[in-house]
Every structure is written in structure tokens, then in C-alpha cells.
Give the backbone structure.
Amino acid sequence: MAEEPAIPDVMQKPGTQPGFCAPEARIFILIAAILGSALGFIDGTVIAIALPAIRAGLGASLVEAQWINNGYLLPLGALILLGGAFGDKFGTARIFAAGIAVFVVASLVCAAAPTTQIMIGARVVQGIGAAMMVPGSLAMIARAYPEAERGRAIGIWAAASALTTALGPILGGLALSLGGPEMWRLIFAINLPLGGLALYLILTRVGDDPTRSAAPLDVVGAALITAGLGLVAFGLTAAAEGHGDVRPLPVAAGFAAIAIFVFWEARARAPMVPLSLFQDRGFAMANLATLLIYFAFSTIVFFLPMTLIAGWGLDEFLASAAFAPLSVFIPLLSAQAGKLADRIGPGPLIGAGAALMTLAYLGLVAIMPSQEFWTRLLPVTAVMGAGMGLVVAPLSTAIMGGAPSALAGTASGINNAVGRVAGLVSVALMGTIVGAAYLRLGGTDSFGVFSDAPGHGAAMIAAFQTLCWLCAALSALAALLSWLVIPRPQA
């Protein structure tokens, strides 16, 4: 999955810190920032390609596979705003380095995990580490580079982060295809040299790392939203194998915790999420569009590789190549879409992009039974890539346009968290739907596993088509709302 690099809360930061690093060390800070953000993004995307092999190696069920994914997304989505505040309070570089260290240690546990339970626990710790390091990547660039050079440095960071995020699943798929059944462990172990290099650069090139000891931390808000999202995800994944029902008690408790979180944020002295931002119609609608678009997109990114590998019988490299158009169209179209959004407004572009993604999901419904990769699947994913290319930059434009300049960084962080929460909930809820559909449509094993059981592949394909119909409906709703509700520039 190639997605927009996170844009942490740096727009409120002071200018370049004179003692942060020497001028000749700036390039090394930039390299460290690229490596750190790439680690966080790649581990969130490559897992979808590796899941069939991980499930085979660990004997994981579909529910456990969902938690291998969601164990990472839950703390990342819930804590990424708190991670930025930690950097303000204790030092941007210190928290970035600590996040990398936590992430790398957890990655090594993932690589050596003997059981699914240990894997899930390590993925949770990975997510905590990522929530500490992802916000710091861009913040360090803002502190290291003077304003005249900062735009170019941020552009290099964004391009490199997008490229590494897009190439991650492809390289992971190649390794899985060429290696043995346990090659998936290398995907996690490779984080050691990459993270080690980033950590070395930070520890040796950063000078004065200023802190703001009085900076408040919304620990209560972070605990409430983590508990709420975790309980909702737990309750929704309970029926993913198709043998049970959604557990209403955890879901109800989760929504109660989320409601208390909203109540707390409205009254907290320094809230993670300033609710006043949502009084702006453009900001609120852009976040709703983000939720719908990324809910559908994350569903496809998570379940399509499993369908291709365990349903169609493709190798991992070819399955990962299905997403290659994303790495082409997102950087190709984003800059132009951003410029056009400034002129005509972001709503029409978000609507057009979501409409293209709707067509792509309907195209998946049509072509999945053919099992034809080059002439049918790849053109459909190209349409999906074009849709995302139109969506990414205008969404940021809509978010920035709906927030006061003093809260621009916070607004961007909120939007980033909304996208990750959409991915968390989509995998939890859609896993339940696809598991039930697989059994109803004749499957006798488990969705997403390697199996020679009669009808397994056909049932997987049909169950995945069910998800595509739902994703098309959500994307169509996002297109309609974006076109009609997101404000256009005043003439």
C-alpha cells in the first residue's frame, strides 16, 4: 500500500535550532528522517503480502492474522499525536531515536517469533515505536534546515518516503518468492541494519536537542482512545472465521470509551484532538472522506494479496506487483492535483478520485473470476492508483484550508490518524464479513490460507467480491459527499 507520508505537527515549531546540528550534518539528519519514516510505512504495508506465509509458518487463524496487522495499526493510529507531543516535551531527536530503538527490538522479536501470540505482542510494540518516530521525522528536518532550504529538504523526504513505501511490498514479495517458506522473517530482520544506521546518524550528528518541559501531554486522552479502538477491534474480529457472532459487549464498551474520549477532549487543557477544528465544514467533511476512502482502500490492500496468493495461486512477487501502479500514479499525479486543488478547490478532485476508485472496485468484482493478471487485474489497479493520485494531495489541501494556521500541524496529524484508524477498523470489520462469506459460499477451510480443499479458491474469490461491492459503495459515498459538501474557493 502506497499512502501519503505522514505530516506531523511541525508547522507550529520555531525556526531552525542553531545548535541542533552543524550545517554539514543536515544531510545525515535528512537520511535518518527518511529511514525512520520508511521503516514505519513499510512495515504497515508489506505485511499484507507476507500474511499467507506467516499464517502457514505460525499456524495463525484469520482472526490472528487480522491482529498481526491491527496490533501495529492500533497504537500507531491512537498514539501518533501523543508521539509528537512527547518530542516537544523531551526532545525531537531523543524521542525519534527512542522510537527507532523500540521499533527495531520489536522487529527482531517478530523475526524470531515462535508463536502467533508473541508475534502479535511484538507488533503492538512496533506500533508504539512507530508512533514515537514517525512524527519526529519531519520535525527534525524543520529544526535542521533553514527556511530557505527547508522546502527542498521536505520534498526530498516526501519523495524518498513515498518511493520506499511503494517499493517495500514489491521487494518483500520478491524475497518471499525467491526464498524458502520462512523467508518472511527476513522482512522483519532487515529493520535492524536500516534502523541501526538511522540511530547512529541521530546519535552522532545531533547536537543540542531542546526540550519544552512545560509542554502538556494528554495521557488520559491517549489511554481512552487506545482502549476504545482496541475494544471495538476486538469485538469486531471475534467472528472473522465465520463461526460466531460479533461480541457486543466489547464493541459497546469500546464505543463508550470513545464517547468519554470526546467528552474529555472537549474539556482537557491540552487536548490531543481540539474538537473546535471540526466546527469547520470543510475540515469535518475532509476527515469523513478520509475515513470512507481509506476504509475501502485498506480493505482492498489487506485482502487482495491473500486472495491472489491463496485463491489464485500467484507467487508473492507477482501479487505485490499488482500494487505497482500505485507507486507510479501517486507521485505522478499528486503535485498536479495539489496545484489544481488550489485553483478549483479540493472537493471536485477528491470526488473524481473516489469515483475512479469506485470504478476500480467494481472492476475487481468483474475480473476476479478470470484469474488473469496482466490484461485484467493490472489495468484495474492502475485505475485505483489514478484515483489515489487524485485524492492524496487535495485531501491535505482540504484539511489545511479548514484549520487555522496555528493548528495546521495538529490538523494534519489528526487527518493522518483518521486514515490509520480507518485501516484498523476496516480490517477488523471486513474480516468478519469475508470470513462469513467464505463459508457461506462453499469454503471448507479458512479465508487466506494455503489449502487444497475443494472449492477453496472459488470461495475465496467470491468472498472477496463481496468486500469489493461494499468498498465500491463507500467510495461512491465519499465521492458524492466530497463533490457536494467540501467548500470551493471563493470567487
In short: The two ends are 37 Å apart (CA to CA). DSSP finds 17 helices and no strands in the chain. Residues 443 and 459 are 5 Å apart (CA to CA). Confidence is low (pLDDT under 50) at residues 1-15.
